[in-house]
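Protocol step 4 of 6.
Sequence for Oxidoreductase MhqP (Corynebacterium occultum) entered exactly as in the expression construct, tag removed. Do not edit the line below.
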Amino acid sequence: MDKPVVRDAALLIFRGVLGLVFVAHGWDKLFRTGITETTGQFSAWQVPQPKLSAYVAGIAELLGGALLTVGLLTTIVAGALALLMVAAAYFVHLDQGFFSDSGLVSGGGLEYPIVLIAGLLMIVVFGSGRASVDGVLARA
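Step 5 output, structure tokens:
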């Protein structure tokens, strides 16, 4: 299992899934739920500067997720998204228990952002792998 091809394939799948999760959440904040509703949610959760934070979170998740998926600037993007998830865990998820399905206010518990943070840290540590734009640029 410690073969480069297996490691690179696992990183590709892992990056792709994690990236698509962030793209979906960014898309939701910006276009599906909308920035006005997202700002209202952020305001209710007492996130500082809720409108600015909603834009920053939505754009960072959408763009960062896309960059993760293709593997461009991967470690920087994963680190930035990990910091974003730490902020989300603190402002949104901390008071809602551990489990995502705790039945409390929307936003879920701490388990979801902790899993995302751990996944992003794995990408920071192990990089994007050879099956990525970063990998192609490193070989060129």
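Step 6, annotate. Residues 4-127 form one domain.
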